[in-house]
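Researcher: I'm comparing several assemblies side by side, and this is the next one on my list. It has 832 residues spread over two chains. Same procedure as the others: predict the full complex and return the structure.
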Amino acid sequence: MHVDGLSEERIDHRFKGLPPDAEGLTVGELAAERRSIFDGGFTTPVLALSAPALEHNLAQLEEYCAKHGLAFAPHGKTSMAPQLFARQLAHGCWGITAATAGHVRVYRAFGVQRIFLANELVDAAALRWLSDELAADPDFRFVAYVDSVRGVELMDAALTHRVDVVVELGAPGARTGVRDEAVAHQVAEAVAAARHLRLVGVAGYEGELPVKTEETVTAWLRQLVALARELDARGRFAEADEIVLSAGGSAWFDSVAQVFDAVDADDFSRPVFKLLRSGAYVTHDDGHYRRSTPFHERVAGSLRPAFRLWAQVVSQPEPGLAVLNAGKRDVPYDLGLPVPQVVRTLSGAERAAAGMRVVKLADQHAFVELDEGAGVEVGDWVGLGLSHPCTTFDKWQLIPLVAEDGTVVDFVRTFF
Amino acid sequence: MHVDGLSEERIDHRFKGLPPDAEGLTVGELAAERRSIFDGGFTTPVLALSAPALEHNLAQLEEYCAKHGLAFAPHGKTSMAPQLFARQLAHGCWGITAATAGHVRVYRAFGVQRIFLANELVDAAALRWLSDELAADPDFRFVAYVDSVRGVELMDAALTHRVDVVVELGAPGARTGVRDEAVAHQVAEAVAAARHLRLVGVAGYEGELPVKTEETVTAWLRQLVALARELDARGRFAEADEIVLSAGGSAWFDSVAQVFDAVDADDFSRPVFKLLRSGAYVTHDDGHYRRSTPFHERVAGSLRPAFRLWAQVVSQPEPGLAVLNAGKRDVPYDLGLPVPQVVRTLSGAERAAAGMRVVKLADQHAFVELDEGAGVEVGDWVGLGLSHPCTTFDKWQLIPLVAEDGTVVDFVRTFF
């Protein structure tokens, strides 16, 4: 990958929260100044990404995948940050997962060589571009989902270069993906009849099962393996070099490891390539994923929440209410509201944020309910824990990477 | 304003939905090609901004403000699009309203000369930048809210150049802003004692009243006028050239016009400057603002929803369900879900979207419930009506501006 160019980008009005007095410096130059996020001229609200927490999380999933013989293509839609993709690849990842053709374009612009598109793609303009990209680079490895005969036909009509596809297995009441084996076999037959497609496996996403328990997730994963075996038995992977089995978000990767561990290679005609695709692990969070990770409770390992949003109290207009200058444009709100963690006064004193709750967000404000004696003042900075990495990253285009003591050591650029 | 440079920007992977085969063209060059949004190589999902609807809306508020003697500083946080600010100013607007110091930086980067910051600003780094900006340009007119003595003191301590402020009037249970006259007078006294602040009026936002009816909004607006009169009687505007009265989002501008119309200039020691700040009107919408605009029903005038999001059906995995390739990253979901309006088949035939409802969004997918016989196919484009302009604009960095027939005539750049 080639991400070094990102440090040449100029700091300016495009990047909220960055120091106004750094205007015109390059990202690399500002990082070299090693400013403090607290008194280095950053303006609130500003999102901080913890460098040690990030490194911890990268290492944890690398270790987990190595231990369980899983290849790993973390879902890049979470961060859309090429610098993080480069670090994920440096931590042993096979490739990066994408959700849209737009994501694939971003990945390719920064030289990602192996991309798993965990989605259907029937857009003719995007498929023409993809054909050209594959034709221009024989080392570009690409795999996408198919889940309908019509989708296969639309793909094949637009493509001019061979594309590897996997049948997506869904479940009744879930999102995309075939609901049963009969449709899977029809889709596989359509792929076999297509000029530009090659079937290489079966994949899906357990996170969209309508009921998710260890039992339902495990049963569905076994169904996925069984479908691959049946397609293999019918000769549907005749053109493939290996058979891809892929699943796994950030909540059930232990079940994926367990079921994929149990796969008997002798049951398949070709080597089996087991691919995990978790994305949210990279920053983890203080809400949804804190509650749903299998680490800590179900299996050995740990993740650390890497994001903290610093907002400032701009108003305390009546007893029991403080208003912060961060709103829907700055923090995620789709899987729970932010949670005040620490209060930092203008003198630099920090304390736990006791008796404070974010109860509502406007576009540019957060409403914080205060218990009596919460002792917050206009001007205080409030550090917020967040829920849902995906809708955090997409609100920030250049994110300070901070050391434990608040020193900004680098910046992470996102592309949404 | 200087926005012409935006047409020199290069089309690339940063801008989702734009034609992959336009990579490397400038925005101006691509606009000059007059491509169709439907078969010009744009990829789904893609947001379309209607050029005629936009022009209609710009003209409607211009006319309304002229008729009612209101100056207009539309809230720029809605679009964060300098090209739209330039058009708003060309349509007679006095200036542009901002919500954060970051907004003010973007506005200044493109040469907005009059900015109303409808928020408290106590961030020292931002206030230092603001001081420098005011010192460097004597023609830069800036006004901000104050609502607490402490806020005034923090501003004054950080500023090195005089800043005009207005007391923000709130209401019990609302957002920021003083809750009663007593605090307003304390804040005014603090401003009088400050070295770098000058009190020039009273302002607020009726959209945050806990109960909003014509009665409560009108009563609150009258309170705002009365507060200004009382502050004036106490000599608090002694240094001001004119007295600013400002209120008004996109839902109650008729009440603002009515109450401000009734202001008797003879009651004030100086000329009264009545400033409206509606923002969402610029694109209007098919949801929240369609229901809340005073146009159509309460007063003469009309607005047209200017946004349509085109997504593609990528999967139809079970009866009654279609899945589109647009999700939380592409459409607003905080004031209602998108509504399917039209279906466009790959042959270009369009029909009303009957029997289709978006019932859920994932990060990159929309779940559409289908009535029997809805007749949707994988590959179809679905045109979605949206609710909430502010959380639409902020998901798109370069938005095609389309003529009635789908010809893309320009692109609007946003800065979030």
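Model: For your comparison table: The longest strand of chain A covers residues 307-318.
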